[in-house]
Amino acid sequence: MRLALLSAAVWLSTSVSAAPTVSEQQQWLDELAGKFELTQDALNGALAQAQYQQPIIDAMTRPAEAKPWHQYRPIFLTDKRIEQGAAFWKEHQALLVRAEQELQVPAQIIAAIIGVETYYGAHMGTHKVLDALYTLGFHYPPRGAFFRSELGHYLKLAGEQQWALDEQKGSYAGAMGMGQFISSSYRHYAVDFDQDGHTNLFEATDAIGSVANYFHQHKWQPGEPVAHRAEVTDADAAEALLSAALELDYSWAELAAAGVLTDAELAADTPVKLLKLDGADGPEYWVVRHNFYVITRYNRSPLYAMAVYQLSEEIRQAYEQQR
User: Fold this and answer.
1) Per-residue pLDDT tens for 5-19?
2) What is the pTM of this model?
3) Does residue 254 have an active-site annotation?
């Protein structure tokens, strides 16, 4: 899955070392050895195969999530992506029905995630995962600790899956498969949905089941809406309700008392959050609910979550029109 990354401005203000010192590298290797029960020989062998990739560092400076909503939305909400989402649903209807029944996650959300992440499996990444995690873990200080941990998970995962270390390719951040799972998520949430003895997220069956399992484990609430378009009667009061936190920090009663309006009928104690997006014609306000928060567990970006939600609704409508 994609990561909520630093903006280019933040990145450029942060010093990036060309390479760790020998003592730093040994300290990191010792930490990985202890945390993941890896031998020094295994770690040294992995690093001997890994290659630093400057394009990976470059890609970290220009994440799509740094764009305003009116530029971000058209990347994912296209006629072609919607049509192919409906076709993906039709092709894998039985699997998606099973995922809905067993894991209580709607088909359109699963399809939208795979559509946003990899265009339904067409673009799963061209970077060697080993190179990506080594480059970011050892040459990208702002998130070095995180990516070194992901490198440890990848080494364990490669052993569990019987992969050659340099075999798998993925995103510049080391995410893999149709749903773009990072290594720790692959190990924790991937499921063998076709029950063939292997967990293969590079093919549709296990990818569909694993995306559904990820949302199920993060407590997706079946039947509950994701978001409601809203209006505000007092812009200053609305501004006071906004926050960068992703958690649902208000009740609907509190938003309504501040002049937030929506056509939806919500109980007064419904946990909600007010979201403001930079639309092409001015601010867009949304009241988002628990399932929106669950989508942000996949990627910690409100823009990402809104794109997934809106794409899912378009895919659902296109699929229903075909029936």
Assistant:
1) 333 333 333 445 457
2) 0.92
3) no
